[in-house]
Amino acid sequence: MSKKIKINGIEISYREAGEQNKETILLLHGFPSSSHMYRDIIKLLSDHYHLIAPDYPGFGLSETPSIDKFEYTFENISETIEKFIDTLKISSFYLMMQDYGGPIGFRIASKRPQYIKGLIIQNANMYMEGMGEWAKKIGGYQKANDLEGLNNFKNYLMSLEGIKEQYLSGSKHPEKIDPISYTTDAKFMEKIGINEVQTALFYNYGTNFPKYPEWQNYLKEHQPKTLVVWGENDKFFSKHGGAAYSKDLDTATIHFFEGGHFMLEEYSDEVAELIKEFIK
Predict the structure, then answer these.
(1) Average pLDDT for residues 10-22, to the nearest whole number?
(2) Taking Cα atoms as reference points, which of 175, 169, 186 lies closest to residue 232?
(3) What Pfam families does UniProt report for this protein, alphabetically (predicted)?
(4) Quick one: CA dihedral 138, 96, 72, 179, positive or negative?
(5) What domains, with CATH codes, occur in the chain?
(6) Axis-axis angle for helices 212-222, 101-111 (nearest 10)
(7) Which of 72, 78, 140, 216 is least surrounded, with the fewest CB atoms within 10 Å of its CB?
(8) Residue range 8-21: average pLDDT?
């Protein structure tokens, strides 16, 4: 069920399914998607758990305040989602994260470890050895101070062609990937003012790397129960990024799939079964 709530004056759209007295899973999406990326997982798990998947400000069906009215940084979005959690009175949950959901979710988990019953990580990186082909490409532009090249690549990633490649690249069964996914994301990227919003967040991504040691220490100290499901052909985050979680977690369960960045499009049934086994 799609719902809306005001957080600090910003209308946040979110999907909610399942009974509230059951275990809660909070699902944090990546770029350039929204809670839409979890639609199949929510459908498959709603009889078993209480699921909540918000769209961040500037994403999906949530409000998109201009860059002079909202600070589009990972720090500020994580604080917004914290307030979203508080407003809905969620104080104990499993946290599922993909892509941008990683730096947002790990900020929350490391600040509020007592809230976290477990982590479900899908191509959300927090290790430098996890940098894939596209991540290295972005880093190369930055190192060379090639702002034109960087901006052109950013614009490609926001285009229909680029978004489609993010979904299809590395997939084993491209026929399973519903075109509605990348066409929906592309339409959201065409909203008025969205280019400035997404550009601000794109250039803020570098603030996440200095946080990696802090988040790794969180894993070492608290040893949260963790399930890693990873598309091993992801152009952003390589297979090494998924495997790296075993360095800091004693009992992490790690599964690799022959898929890409949005591997849930192909393997939602398999991942849903893994989640049920993991929580049980």
Answers:
(1) 97
(2) 169
(3) Abhydrolase_1
(4) positive
(5) 2-279 (3.40.50.1820)
(6) 50
(7) 140
(8) 97
Q: What are the residues whose beta carbons fall under 8 Å from the beta carbon of 211, sequence distance 6 or more?
A: 103, 106, 107
Q: Are 220 and 252 in contact (CB under 8 A)?
A: no
Q: What pLDDT shows up at residue 1?
A: 80
CA distance 126 to 245: 8
Query: In the block, which residue shows the tokens 């989602």?
Result: 81
Across 11-16, average pLDDT: 98
13 three-state secondary structure? strand
> pLDDT category, 142, cuts 50, 70, 90?
confident
Annotated active-site residue in 29, 36, 50, 261: 261
AA identity, residue 208: N
Active-site residue flag, 261 = yes
Per this entry, what is the length of the chain? 280
Q: Give the number of other CB atoms < 10 A from CB of residue 199.
A: 16
Contact by Cβ (8 Å): 87, 5: yes
